[in-house]
């Protein structure tokens, strides 16, 4: 079910900066105050860490995010996968969860080149080890 929410062009510009320019490590997206479009809440510097990213996910509110996830394979070669996150904490408001869930596809479809997708309802589900396990499978 689509919510009719649009994607602000700034979202795509920020994503291209992360994907092609490596000018950001992650981007946090949210809904505008009037719930009519998806906007960039934060674009991190490329030197940001995964812990920085987790600290930017609010405890009781939904968000979407894109993270440029770097890891090493067993043979020592380095890999990078752009990972999409749907952050919907258990204690966020039901109305917000429903609006974010129904609006996700508009954002997700506009971001070409996402390698993996993570759904998180608490911090354990987005812990580095769990995400590493998911993004490194099949590589």
Explain the layout of strands and helices.
Elements: E1 6-7, H1 9-19, E2 26-31, E3 37-43, H2 50-55, E4 63-72, E5 78-87, H3 94-110, E6 116-120, H4 128-136
Parallel strand pairs: 1-3, 5-6
Antiparallel strand pairs: 2-3, 2-4, 4-5
* Main sheet strand line-up: 1-3-2-4-5-6
The H/E string reads: EHEEHEEHEH
Coarse morphology = globular
Task: Give me the secondary-structure category.
Answer: alpha/beta
Number of helices: 4
Low-confidence regions: none
What is the number of strand segments? 6
Question: What Rg is obtained from the alpha carbons, in whole angstroms?
Answer: 15 Å
- Termini separation: 33 Å
The proportion of residues forming helix, as a percent range, comes to 25-40%
Instruction: Note the main sheet.
Output: 6 strands, mixed
* β-strand amount: 25-35%
Mean pLDDT: 94
């Amino acid at each position: 079910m689509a919510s009719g929410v649009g994607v602000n062009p700034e979202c795509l510009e920020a994503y291209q900066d992360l994907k092609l320019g490596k000018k950001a490590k992650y981007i946090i997206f949210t809904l505008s105050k009037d719930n009519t479009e998806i906007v960039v809440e934060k674009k991190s510097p490329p030197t940001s860490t995964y812990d920085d990213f987790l600290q930017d996910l609010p405890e009781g509110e939904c968000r979407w995010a894109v993270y440029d996830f770097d890891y090493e394979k067993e043979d020592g070669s380095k890999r990078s996968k752009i990972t999409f996150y749907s952050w919907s904490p258990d204690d966020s408001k039901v109305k917000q969860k429903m609006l974010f869930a129904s609006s996700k596809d508009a954002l997700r479809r506009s971001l070409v080149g996402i390698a993996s997708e993570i759904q998180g309802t608490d911090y354990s589900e987005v812990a580095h080890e769990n995400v590493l396990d998911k993004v490194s499978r099949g590589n």
